[in-house]
Amino acid sequence: MLLNYDILSTRSGLIWLFLNGSYQPKKGIVLTQNTRNFADAAGRYALSLFEISNEEKVLDQIEQNIKFIDLALNQSDDFKKFVTNPTLKKKDRANVIEELGKKNNFNNLFVNFLKILVEKNRFFFLEKIVKDFKNILSDFRGELNAIVSMPTKMSDAQIKEIESMLNNVLKKKVNLDFKFDPSLISGAKLQIGSLMVDDTAKAKFNKILNNL
Fold first, then answer.
1. What integer pLDDT is reported at residue 196 of this predicted model?
2. Exposure winner among 23, 29, 38, 91, fewest CB in 10 A?
3. What is the DSSP string of 92-110?
4. In DSSP terms, which residues pair with 150 in a beta bridge?
5. From the CB of residue 81, how many other CB atoms can be counted at a distance below 10 Å?
6. What is the CATH number of domain 144-210?
7. For residues 41 and 32, what is the distance between their CA atoms, to the nearest angstrom?
8. Can you tell me the distance from the alpha carbon of 133 to that of 70, in angstroms, rounded to the nearest whole number?
9. Cross-strand bridge partners of residue 176
């Protein structure tokens, strides 16, 4: 046993959510997306993490922890290998998580959540869990997640400018992630939520990007 599940929460129902990776929206928790979008195992874990974080009033802290993991997955090949390596022993992986949590001031709930993924052989779901958690949180706040992929790197100022443009066009708060994709020969690829922008809109979008 890698950890004592009782330290997760005094609410037995929330502990059950973690252990079973299942979720039923509670009264007062409103998600506009169809929860079937998160019906797979990774989605259920993401929903469980969202639920308990909201109940424990640590949603903002967990969001920052999720952002750290998301950045590490996107920028560190070593971290990706750590997440996906099937030969790494549970105890060793749990020890790394413990040290990572201490070094980066992770919320204890999040550290324990990661350890549960390890113990239940679900740690390789982490990248999908991060993605689903971000979508759930944005949906809960009435926001949209978008990803722009380009063959050239962009400055933070340029990314913010695109984000502002999308805010104005969509009349919603947009959380924009940038992905450097050298395989794209020209132009950009824009995804808003689960939808890819069509060719007509993409042409207009590329024209805007060229003027940045």
1. 67
2. 91
3. HHHHHHHHHHHHTT--HHH
4. 180
5. 10
6. 3.30.910
7. 20
8. 11
9. 146
Dist CA 175 CA 173 (whole Å): 7
The domain limits of the chain are 7-140, 144-210
Q: What span, in angstroms and rounded, lies between the C-alpha atoms of 102 and 67?
A: 16
DSSP conformational letter for 188: -
Length reported for the chain: 212
Q: Could you give the CA distance from residue 94 to residue 114 in angstroms, rounded to a whole number? A: 8
Helix (H, G, I), strand (E, B) or coil at 152: coil
Return the amino acid letter for 114.
Answer: L
Alpha-carbon distance 52 to 57, whole Å? Answer: 8
pLDDT in single tens digits along all 212 residues of the chain: 333 333 343 344 444 445 444 444 444 444 445 444 566 888 888 988 998 898 889 999 999 999 999 989 988 999 999 999 999 999 999 999 999 999 999 999 999 999 999 988 999 999 999 989 998 888 888 888 888 888 888 788 888 888 888 888 878 888 888 888 888 776 677 777 666 664 445 555 555 555 55
